[in-house]
Each structure stands twice: as structure tokens, then as C-alpha cells.
Task: structure prediction
Amino acid sequence: MSRSAHPAGPRHADVLPEGHYSAPPTDLNALDSKVWAETVTRDTDGVLTVGGIDVKRLAEEFGTPAYFLDEDDFRARARSWRTAFGDDADVFYAGKAFLSRAVVRWLHEEGLNLDVCSGGELATALSAGMPAERIAFHGNNKSTDEIRRAVEAGVGRIVLDSFQEIVRVAHIAQELGTRQRVQIRITVGVEAHTHEFIATAHEDQKFGIPLAGGQAAEAVRRALTLDGLELIGIHSHIGSQIFDMSGFEVAAHRVVGLLRDIRDEHGVELPEIDLGGGLGIAYTSDDDPREPHEIAKALTEIVTRECDAARLATPRISVEPGRAIVGPTAFTLYEVGTVKPLDGLRTYVSVDGGMSDNIRTALYDAEYSVALASRVSEAEPMLCRVVGKHCESGDIVVKDAFLPGDLAPGDLVAVPATGAYCRSMASNYNHVLRPPVVAVRDGEARVIVRRETEEDLLRLDVG
Ligand code: LLP
Result:
């Protein structure tokens, strides 16, 4: 991204500081449909609306900060993943992106499966009625208690992540008198083009069993000999927020190579492969994500081609999108508390939330966009940094963005594309209360995760 020319405006220095920003948009009131949920628009007064309700009303009723989630958009995205992959493949929504009982019910109704990675996610899924056989259980260090609960519940698959776990799951399944369907997660040695902390298929990290050095083949050998396990396939997840399909291409090539070796060594053709999640979404206008049908077509073609070359029947494919389903469906609504112009630098806009409701900017240097939501403005753009209320200078929500020069305390601003990994990674830092998630649909808004209260905080404090 380039440095912009100096936009005119009352709060600007002559030279703009270094930053990740393009030139200021020509119309600050315009909403780029790439980053906003489907039903978000401005009403005739210029107030942002979602699902037919304006944000001033939403702020009055539910307070700020709050996440507002467009339920129709969520359902439509879930459906489009399912229809894109069709009946010969399975879509597992990755619950870590955002999970609540309402979301589990929507997924169930839309015919998706669910990927969980902890006892808490499993409990949420089961309590909301997701059939256990449609659940995949992940994690690099599942406790024996978690494994036992998953096997007892009858989850459709456990994704094995280590040699120890192969034995643990086999023992527990045997003890419970059952055979557990499992996949083995392997690392294929792909460098995904994403932030280091969310890349997961290179070898020097904690997930999966390396293909390199024959470790994955050895894991398969052991799993095939254990009575408590039914090995149904191989799993690979290369990372998150990926736009470039070439990483998936290499991963599929290597996974299919392992399937071929397994066939040659054991005479067994494993029936499934899971290519994980990780498909990117638009956080700013600079991002260009692919549509689910393009992704489905590309992945299916890659796997079919690789299998044809290896003379294998094409296995059933599964994928695990999280962010690509829920990410674009929600925005966070904040109230502006202070506006602090710093000469020669930028204007710091403090909002009533921060790193406790969106840690992604601090953790991954993630980029977001922001818009004035409670009104339109014809004022000149000013370069801003939207920051939170925490005692931490890295408490940044949007690092570089342009907002109207007349922005003032009491204005509402909205940060789009916060549906994934914001509420699910929220914290109580500084004893700040975690915001609610409000689902909006057809002119109705309902809380699906309520706002935390001080009583909630004090309830955990013993003594
Ligand atoms: N499957 C597995 C095995 C995963 O580990 C993940 C994400 C997914 C699927 C879903 O990936 P998605 O489609 O949502 O990118 N907290 C980070 C992302 C870490 C994701 C960890 N695993 C973030 O905020 O970007």
C-alpha cells in the first residue's frame, strides 16, 4: 500500500507519517460492499443500518461496544459453502472463529457440520443440538477428559495430532467398547502466505505430524494396527487468511502422495481428505477474496487431478472454513469518547472498547477499516488511529484509517468484518466487560451472547 498525498483538512500536518494506508477515499460515507455484511446500508438520514435497523437505535437498546451480526448473511454464506461443495463433500464450520448456541442451530439448519477444538466448544455444540456424528474434534493437546467426552458423545471424527494422542484415543475408545473414526493431521511443509502466527503447515510449529522424514507414514502404520481406531483419512490445514490457492495445491499434492503410499504399503485406500480452513476475507478494500464456488471448483479439481495421477479413487473432501463464513457478517459498533489530534502525526480516536474485543490488530498487525456510523459528514478526511480504552499503547483497533475531520465525542463508529476471532478471542483485560453479540434479521434484533456484567466478573473472584 502506498503513502497517500496530503489530504486537506484541519487536523493534518504537511507530511503524513508512515503507515499502511492508501489515499483517502473520495467519499468517506460510501460503504464498500466487500467489507460490510450483506444488509448493511445507510438510511435516508445517513445512519448505518443492518437488517433494517439503524445503529442509533441498536446502540440505545444494546449499548456499545457491541457486535452486530447479520443473520441472513451468515446463513447465506453457510449455504453457499455447502452448495458450492455439493453432496460429495462436507463443510465443517470452524467454531473457533465464533461459536454460540444460536450459531450452532443456524449451522444445523443450513446443513453444515462443525469443527470444535476444546471441551467448551464441544459442550456448546452438543447443548445446542448439533448431532455428534456431524462434529469433528480437533486440538494439539486434547485432555483425556475431553477425548473421553468426545468418544462417549459419538463425535463423527477425532483429528489426531500426535503419536501420544493416537494411543490415547485408541485406549479410550477400547475402554468404552467402541471404534472411533479418526483422521491424522499432517504438516505438509507448505509456507502459507500469511502472518507467521496463523501459518500452520510449515514444519517448525506445534500442529500435526510432519510428512517429512516418514513421520506421518509411521503414524498411519500405528493407527492402522490399533483396534480402537478406524482411520478414515488425512487432514491438512495450512493456515489462515490465505488468498493464494497455490498453498492448497501443494498441500493436496502431498496429502494425495501419502494416500498413494498408504495404498501401496497397506493395500488400503483411505476414503477422506480434509484440506482445513483458512480462506481469506476482505478486511479492507484492498483485499480480494474468492467466492466459495471458485474455491470448491479449484480444490475439487486439484484433488481429482492428483488422485487420477496416483490412480486412486477420489476421496471425499472436507473443508473447515471459519472466518470466510462468519467474518464478514458482523461489525463492532463503538462510541467515540475522545478525539486527540497530534500535530504532524495523526488523530487518535478513543472508543469505548479496544484490544479486549479485538486483539487481532495487536496480535497480527491485522488491518481493519472503519466508518462513521451515526451520520454522514462532508468534512475533509483526517488520518486517524482508532484506539481502545485499555492501559496499553498497543491497544489499537484500526491502525490507519481516514474519518471525517468533524468527528466528535458521542459519534458512533463501526468496524466491519469483525465476526471472526474477535468475540471468540475477547478478554477481560483491565476488567473490561466483554461485549454482547446481537443478531439482526428482518427488522428484529436479538441478543445471542449477552453483555458481561460486573457480577459475572466478581462471581469468579473467590475470597
Ligand atoms: N481448521 C483448523 C484445523 C484450524 O486450525 C482453523 C483455524 C480453521 C480450520 C479455520 O480457519 P479459518 O477458515 O477461520 O481461517 N485467531 C487467528 C486465526 C487462527 C486460526 C486457527 N485455526 C485470527 O484471528 O486470524
Observations:
- Residues 246-266 form the longest helix (21 residues).
- The chain has two domains: 13-70+328-460, 138-321.
- Residues 94, 96-97, 115, 138, 198, 237, 240-241, 276-279, 320-324, 360, 364, 420-421 surround LLP (CB under 6 Å).
- Residues 1-14 have pLDDT under 50 and may be disordered.
